[in-house]
Write a structure and sequence with these properties.
eight-stranded mixed β-sheet; alpha/beta; TIM Barrel; about 280 residues; 11 helices
């Protein structure tokens, strides 16, 4: 039997002129968002702030992570017009801080790094003052792909570790915990770009394992941290092993500070791009 969702994890439906405008802009530019595709609980709140997280390179993934609502199928060819449309949406929404993420594209030689770079380039042309954060897959730790990202100079490079080492293979069977750390380390050692990572909790980890993960992230120079509650998208996904309480999130904030993080956002409904501008 599935455990009932705690009240503090429920969010109201919000429908305002601002949320409708965000949907209109996204639709007019034929863009996907992780807000919709991953069933983010903060979607409506972010839309009220006139922002959204762009999901590029399609809405199907080449990996089948067991916590994610995005489906695993054969992806379509890259849409070469997408970077311009992302830039148009950033300009139309009047964003000061843009967050771009993607599905994993293991079918592409560079994992889609060039497409990320094209989006950054077009945004810089359309809205030069906008800060840009990208949330990327691991690119299989391909140094050529990571160099492409470095050359594009986003303001923040985000790659989520997602979970602790002992749970990683269960949750991300096609990923690699050490590869994820190596990606963050490479960006940090070869650029002045801020690095960021996050994890979901509630998949069976304990506090000691969380602490070890945070120490691993700090060991590769990770600047910014997010931690939030895993919520099961459907019965086909991994079950929730534990719902953390508000008091436990306060302990996790103290833990993050104790291992050396000065910039972090930790709470039940925190997600990678939630209030990203304020963290930057």
């Amino acid at each position: 039997m599935r455990e009932r969702l705690p009240e503090y994890l429920k969010r109201p439906i919000i429908d305002t002129d601002t949320t409708r405008n965000v949907r209109r802009v996204l639709k007019s530019q034929c863009l996907n968002t992780v807000c919709e595709n991953a069933r983010c609980p903060n979607k409506n709140e972010c839309y009220t702030k006139n922002t959204a997280t762009f999901l590029i390179m399609g809405n199907v993934c080449t990996r089948n992570c067991r916590y994610c609502n995005i489906s695993c199928q054969k992806p379509e060819s890259l849409d070469v017009g997408e970077p311009v449309r992302v830039a148009n949406a950033v300009k139309d929404l009047g964003l000061k801080y843009a967050v771009i993420t993607s599905v994993t594209r293991d079918d592409l030689p560079d994992g889609g790094a060039g497409h990320f770079a094209a989006c950054i380039k077009e945004i810089r042309k359309a809205a030069p003052d906008v800060k840009i954060e990208i949330l990327t897959p691991d690119f299989k730790n391909n140094k050529h792909a990571l160099d492409t990202i470095i050359d594009a100079q986003p303001d923040v490079f985000n790659h989520n570790i997602e979970t602790v080492r002992d749970v990683f293979k269960t949750a991300r069977p096609q990923g690699n915990y050490d590869n994820s750390l190596a990606v963050l380390k490479y960006i940090k050692e070869n650029s002045n770009i801020k690095t960021k990572s996050g994890l979901m909790i509630g998949l069976g980890e304990d506090f000691d394992q969380i602490k070890s993960t945070l120490e691993d992230l700090r060991s590769v120079g990770c600047d910014i941290l997010t931690i939030g509650q895993y919520i099961q998208p459907s019965k086909a996904h991994l079950p929730v092993e534990k719902y953390y309480t508000p008091d436990e999130y306060e302990k996790l904030k103290a833990l993050a500070a104790s291992v050396g993080f000065s910039h972090y956002q930790i709470g039940a409904l925190v997600r990678s791009s939630y209030n990203a501008a304020s963290l930057f």
